[in-house]
Structure formats: C-alpha cells, structure tokens
Amino acid sequence: MPQQSWNEETLNPPSTSPQKDEPSPYQVMLQSAPPDYLTNLDGATRELAPEYPVYYFFYGTLTVAANLKRVIDLQEEPRLRKAKIIGYSLAKWGDYPALINGEQGQEISGYAYLVQCEEEAQKLAYYETNAYRVADCWVFFTDDEEPSEAPGKTFMYAGDAQALLEQRFDRKLWTLQMGGKLG
C-alpha cells in the first residue's frame, strides 16, 4: 500500500468561509452604534436606578407599613410614599398579585419606599421568593411631595406571564422554584 504524503494544504485546506479575524456584519454594526445603544431602547431617556438608596415600588403585601417593617427589620415604621408605575398590569398568582408587562399607559397604584442598602434589598428579595424578579421601573409619586418621580425598582412575576393569565401550568416558574431538584 502506498504511503500518503501529508503537507500543509492537506491538513489545512483553503476555506471559503470568512476569516476569523474579520468581524461579522453584526459586530460591525455594534462597533458603529452609540455607546448607549443597548440601554437606550426606542430613544428612551430614562436613567437606570442608582445602587442605593433607591426607591422600590410595592403593589401587594409590602404596601402595609407593618409588613415592610417586619421584613426588613426596621426599628420604626417605614415612610411609604403613594406612587404609581406605568405600562404594567396585575394578575393573580394564587392569593397574591403578580406584576407583569401591561398596555402602554396602563397604571398600577401602590407605594414606594427608599431602600437604603443592599442588605434591605436582599431581605426584600428573600421575602418575595424566586417567583418574582427585581426589575427597573420609573416611579411617579402621587403625594405632591418632591421628588415627583424617580428611577426605581419593583418585583415582577418571574414566570411565564401568558401561562399565568391563562391559568395554566407555568413550566418556567416551576423550573425556577424546583431548581433542577427532580432531575
């Protein structure tokens, strides 16, 4: 049997695909985009909420000052401000309200509290469970005090909002809550 001779071209045949050094059309587009391209969607000029202190908007059990005081271990009653957020809707998750995306202009009324530190935020997240996720929002205060609006955070339903509305099994939420425990 004749011995095959190996050379560079046999091991690395010429490629018809673009070289790895050449950026893809998507990379070229991103390189030419303004620095805030991914965070300034649809020309929005809203700034993201600062780390701390930051207003958290509540629409359920945490609108009761005594509940909030207990959850974040405060010595005194917390100062809650009447507020609303726009573009959201509420659905029922068992006995609890669940915030989901709503129609443009749709308003949800509630209260906002100025969370002072990461420890308070962690206690709130623990209380809300992994059925809810922290989301950025814009808080509009309705109490005639200043500031009249501010960037903030709120807890949104973490599962499949459509499944929630249709009252059917929510595989996304089930996976979040089970964390792969059955497999």
* Major sheet: arrangement of strands: 1-5-2-6-7
Low-confidence stretches: none
Rg on CA atoms, Å = 25 Å
User: What number is the mean pLDDT?
Assistant: 83
Query: How many extended strands?
Result: 7
Shape: globular
Terminal Cα span = 53 Å
Number of alpha- plus pi-helical segments: 6
Tell me about this structure:
- This protein has helices at residues 8-11, 25-32, 65-71, 118-128, 161-165, 171-178; strands at residues 54-58, 81-86, 88-93, 96-101, 107-115, 132-141, 149-157.
- The protein is of the alpha+beta class and 183 residues long.
- The longest helix is centred in the C-terminal third of the chain and has 11 residues, at 118-128.
- It is globular.
- The N and C termini lie far apart (53 Å).
Briefly say what this structure is:
With 183 residues, the chain is α+β, with helices and mostly antiparallel strands.
List the helices and strands and how they pair.
Blueprint: H1 8-11, H2 25-32, E1 54-58, H3 65-71, E2 81-86, E3 88-93, E4 96-101, E5 107-115, H4 118-128, E6 132-141, E7 149-157, H5 161-165, H6 171-178
Parallel strand pairs: 1-7
Antiparallel strand pairs: 1-5, 2-5, 2-6, 3-4, 6-7
List keywords for this structure.
183 residues; alpha+beta; five-stranded mixed β-barrel; 6 helices; globular; AIG2-like_dom
